[in-house]
## 1
Amino acid sequence: MTTTLPHPVTDARDGEDLSVWPASTRVAPHGDLTVGGVSLAELAERFGTPVYLLDEDEVRGRCRAYRQAFPDAEILYAAKAFLCRAMAHWVREEGLGLDVCSRGELELAVTTGFPPEQMVLHGNAKSPDELDAALRLGVGRIVIDSTAEIARIAALVPQGARQKVLLRIAPGIAAGAHPAIRTGTVDQKFGLASTDGSAQHAVARVLEQPRLELVGLHCHLGSQITSVKPYVQAVRRLVGMLSWARQVHGVTLPELDLGGGHGIAYRPGETALDIRALAVRAQAELHSACTTVDLPVPRLTLEPGRAVVGPAGVVLYRVLSVKRTGRHTFVAIDGGMSDNPRPALYGAQYAPRLIGRVGSAELQPVNIVGRHCEAGDVLASGALLPSDIRPGDLLGVPAAGAYQVSMASGYNLVGRPPVVAVTGGTARLLVRRESLADLHHRDIGL
Ligand code: LLP
């Protein structure tokens, strides 16, 4: 059983760099790869394409790595990265709680028996429906994102009950791979800043509500962060706020939630956030900052999403056409921005590989484009593929487990791809492909 973060695998036989593939990935005959002991070429035949697969052992190994690096902290898996019932089971069995940000995520997890008290509800715009469901089901904590929510949530708590809440702070730290996923700065839609007094005001307002129990502070700096530094800085600022709360209001808040955002490598050579370094540096800072102001050390919570599931996922596409203009080669696949909007939204880059055929030795840069009706539907520009790439070829894209299926859309009525789990040489369907019947079903007609 893996108890540490899986190590990058470089197959010495042909020197191929498989470092961004799941740790179980092996080179197989005829250009194939196996993941979790399952041939990717066979998997594509069996389930059709596009198909997403998740290496169950990789997900579990990553959960364990977090538990091992942070034995005293609470680790919540951020469901927004990807959620299905099996995923909820795996993270629960590995001892993680859940960060949910919608009624859909909350109720899906509850149907698997996930204990609501081990869930934290987020959202900058929680609907009355969502709050009702969260309170009815007994969600562990609700993260308050704005002052307006305070009285609204308090009013929904039944008489005699108390709901645990955290307050989301915007600590004024810019971190994350793209402006669209930087959430720690002030003057954006998330959280309350201490620089303009709104965080302090909110603390006072929450403490006035007898049906709310303020248990701590939260921040989420951004996503795809590869350096430990911003987290250390966030610890310092939030401990400053905890100390202020004790001085001014005489309350000692027992929890500090640092959110998620831990970056992964999408292409060989890219760096992932070093989880062990984060554990050492963030906890050292927490202890020293608390000692300085003579504050008991709060329990740390982390909310990783991408770093748990991203590297465990692979997507397989079939090449449908190859067009060579004078300057470029466009390799069109049977998926695209409807199953992976990340390149279009954040300029994300991937490293696809030919699967199930040994192509010509000569590699050429090609543009791998999606099937949707937009010139910007490009999965990878300048990806190196064998020069004889042709229709019918299979492409595998690693690091596909996070924010792809969960952000898949109904664009062009293509239907969302299935998700298959692989482990111990077997593949099983977790989420079936969205069929034409599914698409027609919601449309009432004239
Ligand atoms: N906690 C909170 C409050 C969050 O908003 C998020 C992500 C997480 C935890 C988990 O962050 P992670 O560890 O997965 O980075 N769609 C974008 C990422 C958006 C992240 C939104 N919030 C992408 O594909 O890069």
Note: The two ends are 56 Å apart (CA to CA).
## 2
Amino acid sequence: MFITFDGSDGCGKSTQQKRLGHCFQAQGYEVVLCHDPGSTALGNEIRHILLHGHELRIDNKTEMFLFMAARTQMVEEIIRPALQAKKIVISDRFLLSNFVYQGYAGGIPLKTLETVGQIAVEEMTPDLAIILDIPYEIAIQRIGNRNASDRMEQKGENYHRQVRNGFLKYATIYPDRYVVIDAVPPPNEVETAIRNVIHERYGIDLSCSPNEIGNR
Ligand code: TMP
């Protein structure tokens, strides 16, 4: 099974990805976590350029290709082999982030992204794509608390408001592809909402014991 988390910066998807992975493991599943862009040696180099190449000129289209290239490597090196081995793969971001950040907010036509995306990941589509939704104001507080400002985070308020709208728009257009979960409540509540979705869709009960939750 291939599950992805997407959402605005600061939505808490990295936390939820790890928690979900832990719950699947507690039920005896083999789990592979990955992070787009990144997770491979090449992907991490590209990630560094994209997030910390402040001194570089990076055209919007180049940015799109770099994200796609990192993802192709991650699909071929990590995701495809893991799925073939019947493992659960949970990715922190995937193609939808490209559609929203470089497309909806960045201005690259959707058709272009779909065409390049098809080449980049071929038929690799998530079984479950979760969008964690938070308003811009809360996202910015969380990012501020993290004290990090990378190249993407520095794109400004308008861009990031567009990002949030873009995620919600995709979810409205393709309700069968994306599940939106309110990411404003505390992490335990968000986690429960995610587990409920998995239970409803796949009949898998991911209740972890309180002890395991305490050890996270
Ligand atoms: P992360 O903070 O979730 O690791 O993502 C890094 C940043 O890259 C984040 O601001 C979202 C952005 N991003 C894109 O703009 N396009 C993409 O295709 C992906 C995967 C991430």
Note: The pocket of thymidine-5'-phosphate is lined by residues 9, 36-37, 51, 67, 92-93, 97-98, 101-102, 152-153 (CB under 6 Å).
